[in-house]
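Researcher: Sequence of Molybdate ABC transporter, periplasmic molybdate-binding protein follows. Predict its structure.
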Amino acid sequence: MKRWILALVMLGLSVVPALAETAVTTGMGYKKMLSELCALYKQESGKQLTEVYSGTIGQSLAQYKAGSGVSVFVSDRQTLEDSDVSFASFQPLGTAVLVLAWKKGLNVESPQDLQNPKIQSIGYPDKKGAIYGKAAERFLTQSGLRGPLKDKLRMFSTVPQVFSYLTTGELDAGFVNTAVVKAQGKSIGGSMDIQSGYDPIEMVAAVVKGAEKDPEVEAFLTFLQSDKARSVYAKHGLRP
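Model: Prediction complete. Tokens:
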């Protein structure tokens, strides 16, 4: 039976259950992708993986240090390398780009249009713990837009949160990922890829030190190199 585990943080204390199965995690922006991969893996192997979701990848890393027992992280390589969690290996899955999206009723032709008075609110994910929050912060700084837009910027925890406010019209524009746009693009006005101005986003499956010889981990990594797995990456916006 699949076990969905959400990290519970109350009064500053992390409640982390012991895991009987090999556990994998990612940030909420790639939760659907990882869930599809785990479901396909079960179909192929008959084996169940435990999926652990804690919010941003930064929160997932914190939960690991609290004893979550996760063996494989799916995230961008730079964030994982910069963390104080030790990894034995990084298996490339593909590259990703930052996406600027906007609500219905607006027309945005370039990031410079964010300075238009008609755009009053711009959302982006957590700049410390979320992949696309870091990328957005870097892009805004590099492009010189952070200063002019400072009164419009609103920070949220995750990509799905930013996107949900775009669909309701509570945000005018926001920085998200390709995965959420591919899944729900009809509910917004439009989007554009931001190709530069931030560090490259290389998505990987990273194995924590000590788990690299686990047969289940090895089997999952092998599956992640299959054509079926690659089709899932493409569906969620990753590029070879």
